[in-house]
Amino acid sequence: MNDIFTARGSMLIAGVTVNGSTVDIAIDEEGMIAGIGKDARKTIDADIIIDGSDRVAIPGLVNTHTHAAMTLLRGYADDMPLAEWLSEKIWPLEAHLSGDDVYWGTKLACLEMIKSGTVAFNDMYFFMERAADAVDEMGLRATLAYGFIDLGMEEKRAAEIKATEALVAHVKARKNPRIQAAVGPHSVYTVSPEGLSWCAEFAEEQGIAVHVHLSETEKEVTDCVAEFGKRPAVHLDECGCLTPRTVAAHCCWLDEAECRLLGERGVSASHNPASNMKLAVNRAMPYHWLKASGANVCLGTDGCASNNSLDLLEEMKFAALLQKFAWNSQTLLPAGEAVAMATSAGARALGTGPGTLTAGAPADIVLLDARAACNIPLHNTDSNTVYACNGGAVMTVLCQGRVLMHERTVPGEEEIVREAAAAAQALVGRAREA
Amino acid sequence: MNDIFTARGSMLIAGVTVNGSTVDIAIDEEGMIAGIGKDARKTIDADIIIDGSDRVAIPGLVNTHTHAAMTLLRGYADDMPLAEWLSEKIWPLEAHLSGDDVYWGTKLACLEMIKSGTVAFNDMYFFMERAADAVDEMGLRATLAYGFIDLGMEEKRAAEIKATEALVAHVKARKNPRIQAAVGPHSVYTVSPEGLSWCAEFAEEQGIAVHVHLSETEKEVTDCVAEFGKRPAVHLDECGCLTPRTVAAHCCWLDEAECRLLGERGVSASHNPASNMKLAVNRAMPYHWLKASGANVCLGTDGCASNNSLDLLEEMKFAALLQKFAWNSQTLLPAGEAVAMATSAGARALGTGPGTLTAGAPADIVLLDARAACNIPLHNTDSNTVYACNGGAVMTVLCQGRVLMHERTVPGEEEIVREAAAAAQALVGRAREA
């Protein structure tokens, strides 16, 4: 079975269920879907054949907001008031993070994401060169941003500019088509207008994305209005940060006019329902306004300290259920739209293709177990995918035609688990000693 | 490995992690925990040894509100207005349900519950004699109630009384200590005061539980006040239906006085967060009031049409997150309390023991994969169990010392999946022809 992880060539997924029909999926040597349908096997001379019977194929999932290495903080502290949780638990531990920690934490995150069907993620954190090493080795796609925080201080801003420029140069020099750099202004409350404007201009100049937190809490909105006389989305827009290359995470407290603004600018809005619920932000993203505005609404898990998992199959259920509950509508965000958020909308946000199972798209494909209880009966694939299945039903994952997991085996899993666990333990030890 | 499913005798789970410590769990020939700790292996001469290394042990989970056979309707219809969903989709399909359907639907539900760590459930549906057959064969515990609905009609009431009496007699005659009967008055809006009073008296006479829906929607409250001049919990109480043997499901719209009443009566209140979110009931159970009142707050998934899974590990996360979000508190329902809801509180509700890993308790034990990403790092078992893991991390399940699943294998799984899928397809076919 190990052969399948190293083999290169054309591939056929034979007799797999897609939207209730049994089809073949043909993948060419460049990892693109050459054909899909009953006759797709004729389009290639397959070097590798994967048996698709007892499997349901869906597009690879895209996680549009993560702080991947925070896997090391999973379960370190929960159920506390936000300010206390950050100042007494999360920040003191993060102060002791090393580049090696970020490497192993990101490896663990990649492992967890692959195990639950994610093929691409949008990350913001520190020591991102080491995150790039992890992504490179694990074989999925990522857009990596250094978290730019100047707190209004000119000296700090100069250092953040340097760190951002260094990461972008590093990622470009790697020339790995799966890894992109982005600019990561943290938020309107941690970055000055000068910092935000620099980020916008640098992203434009480099032709890369902007990854920013937006309107996560009510306090962010009231503070922004008090300091700048305008709401956060308007403030970001005036600094040039809202473009079709922008991914804005959370978007809980946007008002209707801000939603229209995001739609007009073609922004991608990343919904993070589990994190928003756990941190009790007290308002769910206004999906109905964003959808009406034409904004690209996608899905993210946020970091592992505020979720505490990276399972997008689970996150789709949280999204579809939270929208219904919070906005009091039994019909809001139906299953098919939740799947689109986690696939085609995510792929559009990160520029990784159409995010669909169609000829000409990259072969980013997830095979779910059709014999798992969550897929019995199979009245409706979208419904089972969103409401019944979780990451445990994912059997095989392909990214650009390369097999990252097969029959739930990911190469190197034991070492990642061992080293990440050790890194987390050592990190807590260092923080205690300090 | 098949031996482990049929072997009888004393058992040792050797070197397993419980709350961060490595211990042994000794189980005697009657399936009770004989000892737990570093020296527990001395208490028995084990016939069977299960390797507990790389495993985290937690108490078996208890699902206190299900309609198990509705697994056959999983994904049949979703994302519709409630009245239309029920009248156009769910009820027409249910009208064609046979006893065989309930048997295979319940077998599928038992399989799904075992796979996700559930050892006992509280069920209300039709053809419950066939549900009892399924539970008997699958080896877990269940409390089974016939859903009593008289719609205020005397003739219908007489038929429901007959059906209830027949089920109770049937279950008692089986003499299976894992299976109990309960009386199942559906709700205040489907059962007359006379029907409710009969149910209360019959349950008292038989010494069995009452399983009822309570305050799921605002409409239920306003209709009850309009018809009877009192809120649903008060109405149920005046009919004698609130006792320490009562499990009341949902409890979303209880006011503070009703919560105090449930506490005074010693009622078990079953929280069903995923169902409540999916059906947009617009208010979360007031957990803080119920907790303060001393009511026994436990956890349930509801039926598969309104969830659509039976995974209590996932449901714990929904509960802990929904309470925080809906009641705007970052500290409400912390992980440890969520675990207690799904274990000790559930066991108390169904009378299946303490629901803890302690000497003298029934050996209802779940072994989670300690090497799964969701358990790395293991800073805190409760946190990982609630916030990070789902049913996919469950490796081994014991009920009264009997192994129901080992290394994710459940005996007979293939037949259940095949027959339940066929039953669901045939059911839809019959409904279409009609």
Structure description:
Chains A, B: This is 5'-deoxyadenosine deaminase. Chains A, B: Pathway: Amino-acid biosynthesis; S-adenosyl-L-methionine biosynthesis. The structure is a homodimer of 434-residue chains. By secondary structure, chain A is an alpha/beta fold. Chain A has two domains: 3-58 and 363-413, Urease, subunit C, domain 1 (Roll); 61-350, TIM Barrel (Alpha-Beta Barrel). In chain A, 41% of the residues lie in helices and 21% in strands. Chain A is built from 16 helices and 16 strands. In chain A, strands 6-7-8-9-10-11-12-13 form an eight-stranded parallel sheet, with helices on both faces. Chain A starts with a helix and ends with a helix. The model of chain A has no long low-confidence stretch (mean pLDDT 97). Chains A and B meet through helix 3, helix 10, helix 12, helix 15 and helix 16 of A and helix 3, helix 10, helix 12, helix 15 and helix 16 of B.
Counting copies of identical and different chains, the oligomeric state is: homodimer
Low-confidence stretches of chain A: none
Greatest interface and its participating residue counts:
A-B, 70 and 71 residues
**Tally the helices of chain A: what do you get?**
16
Structural class of chain A: alpha/beta
Domains of chain A (count):
2
Number of strands of chain A: 16
Q: Tell me the CATH topology of the largest domain in chain A.
A: TIM Barrel
Helix content of chain A: 40-55%
Q: In CATH terms, what is the architecture of the largest domain in chain A?
A: Alpha-Beta Barrel
Q: What global shape of chain A is seen?
A: globular
CATH homologous superfamily classification of the largest domain in chain A: Metal-dependent hydrolases
What spatial order of strands do you see in the largest sheet of chain A? 6-7-8-9-10-11-12-13
Residue-averaged pLDDT of chain A: 97
Measured by DSSP, the beta-strand proportion of chain A falls in 15-25%
What is the CA-atom radius of gyration of chain A, in angstroms?
A: 21 Å
Could you tell me how far the N terminus lies from the C terminus of chain A, measured between alpha carbons in angstroms?
47 Å
CATH class of the largest domain in chain A: Alpha Beta
EC number (chains A, B): 3.5.4.41, 3.5.4.31, 3.5.4.4, 3.5.4.28
Pathway (chains A, B): Amino-acid biosynthesis; S-adenosyl-L-methionine biosynthesis
Cofactor (chains A, B): Zn(2+)
Protein name (chains A, B): 5'-deoxyadenosine deaminase
